[in-house]
Structure formats: C-alpha cells, structure tokens
Amino acid sequence: MFLRNQWYVAAMGKELGRALLPRTLLGEPLVLYRTEAGAPAAMEDRCPHRRAPLSLGKLVGDRVQCGYHGMEFAPDGKCMRIPGQVSIPPRLKARTFPMAERHGWVWIWMGEPAAADPALISDYHWNETPGWRPVYGYLNFAAEYRLVIDNLMDLTHETFLHPTSIGMYEVAETPITTEAKDGKVKVTRLMPGCPAPPLFRKVRGLTTIDRWQHIHFEAPAHIKIDAGGVPADTKDMTKALRWWVCNALTPETERSTHYFWALTRSFETEDEALSKTLEEQIYKIFNEDRGMLEQQQRMIETDPLRRPLLSTNCDAGGVAARRIIDQLLAAEARPQAAE
User: Fold this and answer.
1) What is the DSSP annotation of 110-140?
2) What whole-number distance in Å separates Cα of residue 271 and Cα of residue 278?
C-alpha cells in the first residue's frame, strides 16, 4: 500500500548526527546517520551477514560497524572489513538508499535508485525563504497515513476538536470548494467577517477577521496549508496573521505514521518568545489530532463487519487525495506484474 518511487522525509535535519538512528520507513527498518563530511546516509538495518540490526553497532569513521561480528560497511553499502578475513565476497553488501537534504528535512527515496531525482522533492521553500520563520516538529501517530491525510484535507474538525485554539463555528459551517488537477488537490474555505479563534487573538490580538484556508495536497503525502486572517474588510496584509502549515507524512507501517511538520510565518519573525508559544500551541493541537486518529484507527481495526468509511461534502479533498494515491499505486504495480 506504499508508493516507493517518491521522496519522503526521513528525519528532521537536527535529528541526524554522528550516531546511528534506527527508524522504520514504509515498513522497512533502516539506520540513518551523517558522514564525517555531514552528508546524510541511510542503510537497511540488517547486516547482510547474519541479519543482525546494524543500529546496534557503531560508526567507525564513515563506516557502520556491525555490533555482532564487527564487519564494516561504507555509506554505499560496500563491505570494507571482515575481522580475521582478507577476502571480501562482493555479495556481502548492505542495501543503501538515495538521500538529500532540503527545507530543514532529510529526504529518502525508497524505490528504484536510478529514478531518484532530487528535482522531484516536494517544494516547501517557505521553510528557507527570507522573511519567513519556521518552527519544526515531529510526532509519531499510531494511525495509518491516509487517515492523517483525511484529517488535514478536511479542517471541519477544528470546530469540535480544537475549540480552545483554532476552532470556531464558521469553520464547520462554511462550505468548501475542491479542485483536483494534474495529480494535485486544492481545498479552499473562505470565512469573511468571522470572530477570530483563540490562537489568533492570543498571537496578534485580532478580533473580527476575514479568514482563509487553502489546503494543497500532492503525492505521496504532502499537505501544505496557507492559513490566516486579516482584520475584517481591510485587506491589510501588514496586520494579517499568515502562516504555512507544512505537513510531510511518511508511513512507518501500515498502522503508523511519521508526522514531520513545520509552521512557517511571515510576521514578527525575530520574536523568539512567539516561536516558542507557537511551537507549544501546535504540539497541543496536533496531539489532539493524534488522540482522535489513534482511536479512529483502533475502531476501524476492531470493527467486526469491516464496514467502509463513508463520505460527506467536507471529505471531497481527502477522497480526491486517496484517489490519486490509488492511481499511482496501480501504476507502480503494473511493471512489477509484467516482470
């Protein structure tokens, strides 16, 4: 159920260093680290010798040394040393994966290595653009990634799940428009002349606002949300609260998801206290989402009738996103079936 010929976020840039980081991505156990030059590297977390976890070993220079028998593997997977043995069989090679670093995140390509073009990495340029300030975070959800996509493509739930921060009556009651084109989906909700939600009041003192939400999806699981509000009837962007909520989802297993996020704002970018406040608020909001989605996952799995999920108008964006994923999965499966 996973798309493989895609770029996924494997780690936040600050997570990766000169220590072995075990992480399961798309159901595969991997070990991540940086070389002495700072380049990210990824290797299957199975020694090709006897399948011991390489993450239980250590780095010797740029080589991963297996903690079981001491064999050493270079970043390209080639075995460079076998204790007590001069000759090294060519087949004794660890599987490795193409990696890149962009937008504050470390990316990995889990499919055909020859197809790993960094130009295909999803554009989150707001994280690095002058005049914008990102706050980064990570959570692990015990829920499959498509449920998280549904959550982000339909923000109706803000009214009921996040009433003390970003929720308000108008979000649930304002119809959306949905556009699916060229493998992407856009959901728009415009709310003129509405009360500012609690977080908007706290951060910028806004009261009555013209509020907008533009949600963009692209495969495999990237959701970028242009959200904000401006004092009602003014169109004065100098007084607006505007941010991009950048959501990069990477399946861990069929029932869990790595949730990498960044909240990137275009106002008061030098205010460190504000950055801390926003980080705390976003973690609170996303943990509320996590609590609900993990229980939703549990209810789906324990449904004895295995009933399908039902959809209403507000689910149009999520349904369109799932359709794109299904089409891409079918396209990837065709060459394998032919072989």
Assistant:
1) -S-GGG--GGGS---GGGTSTT-EEEEEEEE
2) 11
Q: What is the pLDDT of residues 172-201, one digit of tens each?
A: 999 999 999 999 999 999 999 999 999 999
Q: How far apart are CA 228 and CA 141, in angstroms?
A: 26
Q: 3-state DSSP: the chain helix, strand, coil percent, rounded to 5?
A: 30, 35, 35
Q: What is the pLDDT of residues 123-180, one digit of tens each?
A: 999 999 999 999 999 999 999 999 999 999 999 999 999 999 999 999 999 999 999 9
Q: Which amino acid is at 9?
A: V
337, pLDDT greater than 70: no
Q: Dig out the tokens for 92 from the structure.
A: 């004794």
**Residue 268 CB neighbours (<10 A):** 13
Does the pTM surpass 0.90? The reply is: yes
Separation of alpha carbons 155 and 145, rounded Å = 16
Cα→Cα distances 221→24, 63, 131, 191, 246, Å: 17, 32, 27, 27, 11
Is omega for the bond preceding 220 within 30 degrees of 0, making it cis?
A: yes
How many residues are present in the chain?
339
Is residue 250 within 8 Å of residue 8, measured between CB atoms?
yes
Q: CA-based angle 332:214:192, to the nearest 5?
A: 160
The two structure tokens encoding residue 312: 């209403």
